[in-house]
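Retro notes - structure team

What went well: the batch runner handled both jobs without manual restarts.
What didn't: labels got mixed up in the shared folder, which is why I'm recording both outputs here explicitly, each with its sequence directly above its C-alpha cells.

Job 1
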Amino acid sequence: MVERRVGLWLIGACGGVGSTTALGLAALARGLTPPTGLVTALPRFGGLDLDRPAAFVVGGHDIRQASLLSAVRELHGRSNVFDARLIEACAGDLEAWSANLRPGVAYRPNPVLAALADRPDFRPAATPRAAIDQVQRDIRAFQAAAKLDQVVVVNAASTEPVFEAGDEQQSLARLLPALDLPTAALPTSGIYAFAAIDAGFPFVNLTPSRGASLPALEELALMRGVPLAGQDLKTGETLLKSVLAPMFARRNLRVLSWVGHNILGNRDGLVLNDPANKASKVQSKEALLGELLGYRPQSHVSIEYIESLGDWKTAWDHVHFEGFLGTKMTLQFTWQGCDSLLAAPLVLDIARLALLAQRRGESGVMAHLACFFKSPLGVNEHDFGRQFELLERYVDPSA
C-alpha cells in the first residue's frame, strides 16, 4: 500500500514555533528523538489512522528573509535549546523544505508587524481578495509539486491587534463583496484562514488573532467541508490555570485575586511589546478564570518583553485565596519553559488530528481539540481535565 503524503503549511514558518516544528518532524522521521510531549503518541491514540512523521512535507509563508535551517540555528544560538548535532543531522531536510517557502502576504498590517518584513519579495496586498488569491496559488502549487494527498494550514505567525467584527463578518453573503474592496473586511490572519478554507485545506490557528473565528468563515468551512481548530495554543501559565483553578473550585476555596506576570524575550515578546498586539494576548489569557471558578476574582495579567531571556518564557503567579474560618492563604508558582519546544509537539498533534478529521468527512470547528487552546472554538469549557475528556471521547466514543 502506498503511504499517504501530507503537507504542513506554516504561516510564519521561520518563527520559533514553525522552525522548531519542522526540526521536530525531521528528527522524529529519522528516529533521532522520542515523541516526548506529543499527545498523539500516548497509547490511547494508537488505534487512530494518524499520519507518521515521515509522511509530512513542510512548506509555508514568511515575511522575513530566512530559511528553516537558519531560523533553527538562530534560535539555538539565542536560547541554547537544541543539541547542535541534531540540527546538523536534520539540516538536509530543513534545507529541502525551505525551498517550499514563499513570501508572506499582509493586508493593512500594524507597524510593528510590518517592520519585521525584510524579504525583497514581500507583498502587501491592495485588497483582501488579491491576498487570498496569492495564498491559494502558493499552497496549491506546493501540493501539486510535492504530490500531496492533503495539506493542513497552521497559523503560527505573530499576534495581531484585536479585530472587532462588524456586519460584514456575520455571514458569507455579506463578506464576499467586501473582499474586493480596499476595506478592513478581514485581518491578515483571517485572509489566510479564508484562503485555506475556500481551497479545501483544514485550518488551525495557534495565535490569539482572529483567524477563522468569524461567523462568515465558520459558514465557509461547513460549505467546503473543512475542519477548523483554534485558538491561541495553551502551553504554559494558562495551562496551569486551567488545571489549578478547578482545584480551588472543587475544594470550595475562594480565590480572592490571581496575578500573573509573564516575561519573555523572543520575537513573540518583541511583537507583544506593542500595546495593540499585547491587548489580544492579554484578553485571551484573562478570559478563563471566571468560567473556571464561577465568579470573577480580582485578576491581572502582564506580559513584558525582556530581550535577554530569548525563547525562555517565565511566568510568576500569585494566588490569594480564602479558606475555612476566613483564613487567607497564598499559592505562588514559577513556570519557566522554552516556548517553541512546548508548542511544537502540539502543532504536530493538532495537524495529525485535523488531517484525520478531514479524511473522516468532518467539517467545521473541531471542539474536541479544546484542551490545546486558551480560547477554544466551539466550547465554553476551560477546565483542562474536562477538555481532555472531550478528546478521549472522540478517540473512543464508547469510553
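Job 2
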Amino acid sequence: MRTMRAAILAVGSELLGTDRLDTNSLRLTEALERFGVDLERKVVIGDRRQALAAEVRRLVADHDLLLVTGGLGPTTDDLTREAVADALGRELVEDESLVEELRERFRAFGRRMPEVNRRQAMVPTGEVQVIHNARGSAPGLRLTELSGTTVFLFPGVPAELEGMIDSQLLPWLAERTGGASREMVVLKVASLPESEVEERIAPAYDEFGRETISVLAGAGEVLVRATATGADGERRRRLAQMEQRLAELLGRAVFARSAELTLEAVVGRLLAERSQTLVTAESCTGGLVAERITEVPGSSDYFLGGAVVYTNRLKEELLGVRGATLASHGAVSEEVAREMAEGARATLGADWSIAITGIAGPSGGSEDKPVGTVHLAWGGPDGVSHRRLRFLGGRSRVRRLASQVALEGLRRRLLDDPGE
C-alpha cells in the first residue's frame, strides 16, 4: 500500500506575528506520525481569501490528505469555508440543521445566538461530512475531492481541535492505514550538551539506522527520539531494543522515558519514595526552582518551602550566611552558596536543600565573575556539594539553565543516596 502523503495548513494572520504559536500543527503531526502518514509540508497563511484559496488548490493537487486549522469562526476575517469552496469550485449553502444546533447551544448557556453565527452553518456543496463540535460553536468539515484527496477543516481553538482529532481524525486514519504503523519512544536527558549526547549514542546509529533516531536540543534538556515502523509485533520488539540500547549508552543521564515527564516531577518522585523533604534558597533565580517544584501535584508531601534572598541582609538574617563570608568572597561565590545551602537546610529543617546565587544579567558582571556565572550548592545528609558554572544567553535563559542544573544535581544525589 502506498504511503499516504499529507499537508497541514494553519490559517490566521495572528500566526504570522510574534505573539501566537502554531501549536495545532504539532498536535496534528503527532496524529499523522502515529499512523505512518508521510507529512510533506506545513504552511501558515494569513486571513486573505484569494491567497488561501490558491494555497488550498495547490496542496490538494499534490497530497492525499490536507488538514486545515483555523478560520471557522463567525467573524468577517474567518474565511476558511469560503476559500476552500473557491479552491474546489463549490458553492456554500446554509445547513438549517446546523443553524438550529447553534441556536440550541446558545440557549443552553442562557443566551441568544447572534445572527453572525449563521456563517458557521455554511457548508460547501458536494461530498461533505459535518464534524460536530462538542467543545465550541464552530463545526468542522470533511470534504472529498474528485481526485480522491480528503480535506479536513478544523477550528483553530486547540481544545476544540483536540476533541475532533480524537473523535474523527484518529479513527479515519486507523481505518485507512490499518492501525498505528509507526511508534516512538522518547528519552530525556538534562544538563548535557547535544554534542555529548550525540557522541554517546553514536553506536546506535550503526545498529538501528541513522534515520530512526533523532536528537532534539532545548534549554538544558535533550530529547532522544527513536522511531520504529512495521507490523505490530516486529515494530514493538524493535522499539524495545532501541530504547534499551539508548538507555545503556546514555546511562544515568536519562531522567525520563516519556516526553510528558518533567525533571521536577522525577525529582519529586524520588523524594517521595524516600520520604525525604526539600527546601530551596534562591538568589538570581528568584524562586524559579520552587515554582517548578510546586507545579507538580502532590509536591506538598516533600517540598517544605523556600527563601528568595536577593540581598546580602536577607542572606544573613534568613539563612545565617556570615557577614565575613560575604565581605571576603562576595555574594556570588562558592562559599556563600555553601552557607546558603547549610543555612536553608538547618533553619527550615529539611533533608535536602538547593541553593543558587549568581549573575543573571544583563549587567552586574565583572572580569572575575562575568554575566552568567552561577554557583549552585546542594545540602544533604552527607554534607554540602558545590558546582560553579557559566551560562551563555539572556537573563531568562541563565535562570532557566540554573534551575535545570539545580534539579538535575539533586536527582543525581538522590540516586546516590539509598535513603532509609
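One thing worth noting from job 2: The chain has three domains: 5-177, 182-256, 263-416.
We'll revisit the folder naming next retro.
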